[in-house]
Amino acid sequence: MRILVFGAGSLGTLVGGLLASVHDVTLVARDPHAARVSAAGLDIIGAGSAHISPAATTTDTGHSADLALVTVKSFDTAAAADALADCDVDAVLSLQNGLTEETLASRLDAPVLAGTATYGARLVEPGRVECTGVGRIVLGALDGGPDPLAERVGKAFRDAGLNTLVATDMPRRRWEKLAVNAGINAVTALARVENGALAGDDAGELAHRAARETARVARLERVSLPNRVAREAVDRVVEKTAANRSSMLQDVAAEKRTEVDAINGAVVDIAADHDFEVPTNRTLAALLRAWERGAGLR
Ligand SMILES: NC(=O)C1=CN([C@@H]2O[C@H](COP(=O)(O)OP(=O)(O)OC[C@H]3O[C@@H](n4cnc5c(N)ncnc54)[C@H](OP(=O)(O)O)[C@@H]3O)[C@@H](O)[C@H]2O)C=CC1
Ligand SMILES: CC(C)(CO)C(=O)C(=O)O
User: What are the Ketopantoate reductase N-terminal domain coordinates in residue numbering (predicted)?
Assistant: First the structure.
């Protein structure tokens, strides 16, 4: 399969590098990373190690591929879609956090698959990516149900050794992940604590409230996600990732723009479409956006 990885930073470089063991992969990345991979190949370290030589470029238009994997940060999704519209790609799969697939689908003619990734990745330096945790990729039709394209992409991922599940219930999975991120990411980023600090704490109750609101909005969108399931998903992730610093906390610590717009902000926007109030998500989004403005990031 010819695979274009659009936005090869941490996650895209890891997944693209693993896929390159059996597929024809091109990483669309920034220099000096792209230049380093082109000149000397890519080192994958951490959980599993490999040296692999995918193509790499900074040019983001004019490509042709069977699949475009979108791994830019959520706030770059619209720009990525506009660049991909100038490419000839047969299918698109997002592995981003937050609700980004709708942005891709509204701007592209190619079919867009939904995906989630729990692999951990960190671009250590140009040409070197660390796998900080072997997780799982789950992908499937954006609206749910069986999908031959998702099956083909899933097989291509499994052929390359990636732990991959093709799911027929992506709407529920996306909203459950959104509920987890809306609760854990925002609260840990604002409180500057590891995920495990939410267990049995008032801040954990705040994360539960954000997740329950998200589940309610999912149901308004006709996605079956009971409040209890969203709350239990938060508890499960807090327990399993207790030592983790959430991606949003890492962004705040590094003074980088966060993905709040595609997480809590998306919950607020979709709730508004239904004339429904989500005060916890609204407050969390307002605080994170205020911090971003203060830091000159938006
Ligand atoms: N890292 C991880 O372990 C995981 C990440 N995710 C999700 O995956 C997504 C990506 O995260 P992550 O990999 O950490 O983010 P990164 O910022 O490391 O990677 C995104 C990369 O895309 C680059 N990029 C953006 N636009 C272009 C363009 N037009 N041409 C070339 N390169 C471009 C960015 O460069 P620049 O910054 O210069 O714009 C950046 O290097 C996020 O939604 C995240 O939540 C999900 C699970 C795990
Ligand atoms: C699951 C969780 C909360 C793990 O930290 C995550 O997805 C993130 O940090 O973005």
Answer: 3-143
> What's the CA gap between 298 and 291, in Å, rounded?
10
213-229 per-position pLDDT tens digit: 999 999 999 999 999 99
Question: ipTM of this model?
Answer: 0.98
Domain extents in the chain? 2-166, 170-294
34-76 tens-digit pLDDT: 999 999 999 999 998 999 999 999 999 999 999 999 999 999 9
Q: Which amino acids bring their CB within 6 angstroms of ligand 2?
A: 97, 180-181, 184-185, 195, 237, 241, 244, 246-247
Quote the distance between the C-alpha of residue 47 and its chain's center: 20
Tokens of 203: 């801040």
Per-residue pLDDT, averaged over 240-253, amounts to 95
Is there a contact between 178 and 263 (Cβ–Cβ < 8 Å)? yes
CATH class of the 2-166 domain in this structure: alpha beta
* Cα 181 to ligand 2 centre (Å): 6
Say which ligand is closest to the CA of 16.
1
177 is catalytic: yes
CATH architecture for segment(s) 170-294: Orthogonal Bundle (1.10)
